Inverse folding.
């Protein structure tokens, strides 16, 4: 975790501090126990064995693999051919990941298909340490909400499993239609036959929105509950089908009575920067009391309640303090 997996990366990942690693681990535990049985799960910090390795042991591990084999990795080869740096700690990453399998004597290791190469290194090193090689099981990568790249927080195309039901439902409804079947396959408990039926219905011209809503209900039910999924569906229809305001809108109290819209969007944490606020206004993605605002110099008078909408799903009530 401190080094970061270089798989699929065209440049070196930044290192994480011990504090960041522990905070991430707590979050991962919360998330994983939405799926796994806590009473049947054990967590290990691989630092508990990595930190005990002596220099001669690290050299011994490194001696069991060649640079030529490491350069067979597509991402390393691309960097090598383009004269981009590959640091030694990145070369060591797959070996240390493989050593994790040795330390816990893994029977099976799971991973995304981008981890296939790393997982095979684990099998090879286990043989070198006279252990039965682990079974490797990989899954296709989940495409993000942009419909292009793999889902990742880094690409801002992700749906967080800890997100509120309404936000989760809305993000799923925003995915491109061509991802509906992909998400049913990877994110739900639907049978293969059911998914084939959904695919047939789409090919026959059924409105994708209906199946997308079913998909959203399925996923929200897994991470929250069926009741929360139904409420999220009703709330989505209320806002997007019937063009009403959401039932619950966060409130921001402004000390300013007259303020530029750009400044208000930033100080109310609707957008991260003035440049981003200007871009959003120019794109036509900002509404004030239902009216689209296109003037980046627009002045907002706050003498009563106003409602700001940014994008499709972000709403905020602004009141004078």
């Amino acid at each position: 975790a401190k080094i970061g997996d270089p798989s699929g990366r065209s440049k070196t990942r930044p290192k994480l501090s011990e504090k960041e690693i522990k905070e991430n681990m707590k979050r991962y535990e919360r998330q994983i126990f939405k799926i796994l049985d806590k009473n049947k799960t054990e967590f290990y910090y691989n630092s508990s064995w990595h930190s005990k390795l002596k220099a001669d042991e690290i050299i011994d591990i490194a001696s069991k693999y060649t640079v030529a084999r490491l350069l067979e990795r597509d991402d390393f080869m691309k960097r090598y051919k383009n004269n981009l740096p590959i640091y030694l700690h990145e070369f060591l990453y797959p070996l240390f990941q493989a050593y994790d399998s040795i330390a816990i004597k893994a029977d099976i290791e799971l991973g995304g298909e981008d981890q296939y190469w790393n997982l095979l290194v684990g099998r090879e090193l286990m043989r070198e340490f006279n252990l039965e090689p682990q079974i490797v099981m990989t899954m296709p990568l989940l495409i993000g909400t942009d419909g292009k790249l793999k889902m990742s927080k880094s690409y801002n195309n992700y749906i967080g499993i800890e997100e509120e039901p309404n936000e989760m439902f809305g993000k799923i409804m925003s995915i491109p239609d061509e991802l509906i079947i992909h998400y049913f396959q990877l994110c739900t408990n639907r049978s293969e036959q059911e998914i084939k039926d959904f695919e047939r219905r789409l090919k026959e011209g059924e409105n994708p929105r209906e199946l997308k809503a079913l998909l959203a209900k399925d996923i929200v039910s897994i991470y929250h509950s069926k009741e929360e999924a139904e409420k999220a569906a009703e709330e989505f229809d209320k806002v997007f089908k019937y063009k009403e305001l959401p039932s619950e809108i966060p409130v921001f109290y402004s000390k300013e009575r007259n303020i530029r819209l750009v400044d208000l969007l930033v100080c109310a944490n609707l957008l991260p920067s003035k440049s981003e606020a200007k871009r959003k206004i120019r794109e036509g993605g900002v509404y004030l009391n239902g009216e689209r605002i296109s003037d980046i110099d627009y002045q907002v008078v706050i003498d009563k309640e106003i409602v700001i909408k940014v994008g499709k799903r972000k709403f905020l009530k602004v009141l004078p303090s």
Notes: Residues 153-241 form a domain with the Tyrosyl-Transfer RNA Synthetase fold (CATH 1.10.240.10). Strands lie at 108-112, 135-139, 251-254, 258-260, 286-288, 291-292, 299-301, 306-310, 314-320.
